[in-house]
């Protein structure tokens, strides 16, 4: 079992996915549906998202496909505006992501920490 990565509450949400520990990644890969649900929970908690990575699962093995997104907070942006914007960017990326490879697509989300 993994130690706490982000925070207990964030880890509870993300751990609905599959661990990426075998790849040396301290995070979880979530289906499109689960990732969007996690993001809506983060929004309610006031937790922003710095970005995320796309993984493919084929034959029960996760592999990175090196697609990703990111979002940085601007100097003039309040925390609440950043949360709204970063969640919106993440949801848009995940909803519109086209899988051009064989296998199931999954998403690892990198939340901000300190708010949950």
Report a brief summary of the structure.
The protein is of the alpha+beta class and 116 residues long.
Task: Write structural notes for this entry.
The protein is α+β, with helices and mostly antiparallel strands. It has three helices and five strands, in the order H-E-E-H-E-E-H-E. It has helices at 8-14, 32-45, 79-96; strands at residues 18-19, 28-29, 49-58, 61-70, 104-111. 30% of the residues are buried. The model has no long low-confidence stretch (mean pLDDT 91).
Percent of residues in beta strands: 25-35%
Largest sheet: 3 strands, antiparallel
Structural class: alpha+beta
Provide the number of structural domains. 1
Tell me the CATH architecture: 2-Layer Sandwich
* Number of H- or I-type helical stretches: 3
Order of helices and strands: HEEHEEHE
Features of the shown structure:
116 residues, alpha+beta, Ribulose 1,5 Bisphosphate Carboxylase/Oxygenase, three-stranded antiparallel β-sheet, two-stranded antiparallel sheet, 3 helices, 5 strands, 34% helix, 28% strand
Describe how the helices and strands are arranged.
Elements: H1 8-14, E1 18-19, E2 28-29, H2 32-45, E3 49-58, E4 61-70, H3 79-96, E5 104-111
Antiparallel strand pairs: 1-2, 3-4, 3-5
């Amino acid at each position: 079992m993994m130690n706490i990565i982000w925070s207990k509450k964030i880890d509870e949400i993300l751990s609905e996915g599959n661990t990426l520990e075998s790849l040396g990644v301290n995070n979880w890969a979530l289906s499109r549906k689960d990732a969007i649900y996690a993001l809506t929970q983060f929004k309610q908690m006031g937790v922003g998202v710095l970005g995320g990575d796309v993984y493919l699962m084929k034959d029960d093995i996760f592999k990175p496909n090196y697609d990703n997104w990111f979002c940085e907070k601007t100097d003039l942006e309040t925390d609440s505006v950043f949360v709204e914007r970063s969640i919106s960017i993440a949801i848009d990326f995940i909803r519109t992501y086209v899988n051009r490879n064989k296998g199931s697509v999954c998403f690892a989300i990198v939340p901000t920490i300190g708010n949950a």
